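Collaborator request, handled under Task 6.
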Amino acid sequence: MRNYFNYFTEIEERFQQRRGSILLLSTLDWALIEIWREAGIPLEAVLRGIDAAFDKYESRQKRGRMRKINGLAWCAQAVMFAAEELHEAAAGSAPATATPRDTGFEHERVAAHLESAAEALISAQAAAPEACAQTSARLRELAAEVRGSADNGPDLESLERSLTVLEEKLFAALTAAAPEQLLVALKEHAARELAPFRSRMGVVQLRQVEQQFVQKQLLVHYNLPRFSLFYMSQQ
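Structure tokens returned to the collaborator:
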């Protein structure tokens, strides 16, 4: 199984490399990466799309002054096109041989990540305390299961699916309990952030990114953690 962390870091590094300067990815950028990951867009397609977008930008820049590319959303169309090309090229090809299980996720680090998230849920002053308490308890159960898993390591794909479900249930509880004014403000914030990129993304993708953006900002507002193994410390 491919190291989850690589998907995030390699995209970030390629974007920064092509831009020629260190630019921290925004909440919108991270939301877009999550959309690509959840849609099953291969890392290779994302990297190809970033390169294609910058190649096109640089060819145009030679003919006139243009502002720098300041976000991954500028690469969204190129990424989707690269994904389609990759899919078409793979059609009819021989199935890939199974790769060894990634060993970068030791039991203890995974369990510690889950327990840290569980503790943060209890400590936070969120709008849905009962949901936070229930989620915290479930995270501790999962941490115990990881520690008790077989020597070949926990089933990370299954674990990630469970964490995704827990996040979705918590988001639903927070959304139901949050003040209307807060949700309206977050949606307005998302609309402002997405405004420059509406012509570069499809309607469905825009809606997905907006939802991811609002969810992330809701967690930030209540100082709540992310559960996904993408957010696990690499220390």
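The cover message to the collaborator said: "Residues 122 and 129 are 8 Å apart (CA to CA). The chain has a mean pLDDT of 81. Please let us know whether this matches your experimental observations."
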